[in-house]
């Protein structure tokens, strides 16, 4: 068993920021990440542009300098890789945390698929991108259904249905249209979401107006079949020809993972029990960082505010160390 100063579960921007803050108070934490650094960002659409500016995405006092105001996915990947190198953060890549158990002596035993660690402090910064919100409708498990969008080329000259009306759905619809797919968008809302990035909405609206993208408000999918989908539009059922479906219905935290550690979860909001000033959960010396703290409301915490959680955690640990 290896003993370490602190373990951070998750190598996203908020987890890396927490590691830097712990290093700043003299600890030598390790970050355990099931993929590689900022794995969730790697899984973003290839041509994704962030809503936040590069300045707000910067961590650890390392400037994020680009010519444009808002960075793209590939620029963010380069930046966070450089931060890991510059700050000499120890990241155990391609290692999955399987359990975190608090022992009688107060230390945590962290078991992964590769090793067992003992540590006095654990910070869980796992995000939510690995847990899509399912619709629980017939046919959702068909191979033609995707809950993540990466690139559009594969779908050239096909009939594609996009489910959702927020940024991920609009981004996917635009890329698919550009690649030559015939795109239909189904959205439960009665109008465009106010959260859509303002610099892409006009283009999307224009494509809908010119009938290059078919947009259905007040609608939802009832069933997905091999070559068609059944959609209810304004209360009337309709069958639409279809080859592929992108269900961009959002994501949620892995509640079971942190509940197994002893953390209390509010059943209605999905929000873990934690101290707003320290990020410590109801389990002593077990902290959370990033969007995990928002529970089911993924629009509450982003990189630009979740990156500060590490500072709160480090300040609390420093008090305990004195």
Overall description:
The protein has 322 residues and is α/β, with parallel strands linked by helices. It starts with a strand and ends with a helix. A five-stranded parallel beta sheet has the order 4-3-2-8-17, with helices on one face. A five-stranded parallel beta sheet has the order 9-16-10-11-12. The mean pLDDT is 95. The chain has helices at 13-24, 39-42, 54-57, 73-86, 167-178, 201-209, 255-259, 303-306, 309-321, and strands at residues 2-3, 7-9, 30-32, 90-92, 97-102, 108-112, 116-119, 122-124, 145-146, 159-163, 182-186, 213-216, 219-224, 228-233, 236-241, 244-247, 286-288. The chain is built from nine helices and 17 strands. The longest helix has 14 residues, at 73-86.
Note the main attributes of this structure.
alpha/beta, 322 residues, single chain
Radius of gyration: 21 Å
Question: How large is the count of helical segments?
Answer: 9
Multimeric organization = single chain
Strand content: 15-25%
Pairing-aware structural class of the strands and helices?
A: alpha/beta
Distance between the termini: 27 Å
Number of β-strand runs: 17
How many strands, which pairing sense, and closed or not: the largest β-sheet?
5 strands, parallel
């Amino acid at each position: 068993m290896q003993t370490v100063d602190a373990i951070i579960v998750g190598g996203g921007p908020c987890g890396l920021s927490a590691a830097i803050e712990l290093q700043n108070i003299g600890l030598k934490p390790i970050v355990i990440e099931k993929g590689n650094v900022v794995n969730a960002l790697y899984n973003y659409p290839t041509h994704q542009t962030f809503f936040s500016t590069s300045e707000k995405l910067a961590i650890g006092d390392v400037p994020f300098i680009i010519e444009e105001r808002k960075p793209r996915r590939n620029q963010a990947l380069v930046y966070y890789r450089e931060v890991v190198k510059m700050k000499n953060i120890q990241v155990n890549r391609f290692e999955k945390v399987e359990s975190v158990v608090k022992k009688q002596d107060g230390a945590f035993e962290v078991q992964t698929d590769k090793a067992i660690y003992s540590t006095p402090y654990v910070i869980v910064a796992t995000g939510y991108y690995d847990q899509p919100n399912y619709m629980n409708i017939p046919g959702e498990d068909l191979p033609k259904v995707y809950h993540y969008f990466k690139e559009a080329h594969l779908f050239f000259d096909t009939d594609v249905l996009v489910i959702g009306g927020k940024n991920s759905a609009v981004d996917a619809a635009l890329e698919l249209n550009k690649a030559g797919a015939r795109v239909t968008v189904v959205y439960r809302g009665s109008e465009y979401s106010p959260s859509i990035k303002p610099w892409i909405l006009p283009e999307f609206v224009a494509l809908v107006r010119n009938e290059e993208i078919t947009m259905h408000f007040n609608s939802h999918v009832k069933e997905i079949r091999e070559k068609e989908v059944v959609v209810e539009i304004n209360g009337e059922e309709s069958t639409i020809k279809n080859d592929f479906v992108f269900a961009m219905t959002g994501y949620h935290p892995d509640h079971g993972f942190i509940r197994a550690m002893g953390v209390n979860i509010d059943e209605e909001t999905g929000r873990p029990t934690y101290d707003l000033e320290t990020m410590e959960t109801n389990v002593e010396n077990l902290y959370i960082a990033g969007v995990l703290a928002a529970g089911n409301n993924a629009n509450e915490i982003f990189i630009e505010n979740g990156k500060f959680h590490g500072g709160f955690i480090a300040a609390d640990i420093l008090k305990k160390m004195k």
